[in-house]
Q: What sequence folds into this?
């Protein structure tokens, strides 16, 4: 049996240029161009669609998680980019978490799990 490996996610939006610029600034400042944004081998595809609203009305339905090795560095990068924190960075029994949103209202989360979790 073949095991499926997620390789990309498509974010549908009514304003692809703005959303692509935000993602580049927040998550991949070195990325250039209009193609998929490479997030460590996982591709983020941003596409204009006419079957979505301008704002995500149910952002908690799917949260894009980023597991990070250097939580402090990523948090600083996100703060410098001016992200809006939905759930501020906090230590939990299983690790550190912080949840923020993109301009379309989609939720994203950075996570650093504890070794023993």
A:
């Amino acid at each position: 049996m073949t095991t499926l490996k997620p390789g990309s996610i498509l974010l549908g939006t009514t304003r692809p240029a703005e959303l692509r610029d935000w993602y580049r600034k927040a998550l991949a400042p070195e990325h250039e161009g209009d193609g998929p944004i490479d997030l460590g081998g996982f591709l983020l595809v941003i596409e204009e669609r006419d079957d979505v609203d301008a704002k995500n009305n149910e952002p908690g339905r799917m949260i894009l998680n980023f597991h990070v090795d250097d939580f402090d560095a990523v948090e600083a990068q996100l703060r410098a980019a001016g992200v809006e924190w939905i759930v501020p960075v906090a230590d939990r029994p299983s690790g550190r978490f912080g949840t923020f949103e993109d301009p379309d209202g989609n939720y994203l989360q950075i996570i650093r799990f504890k070794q023993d979790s």
In short: The first strand starts at residue 8 and ends at 13. The mean pLDDT is 94.
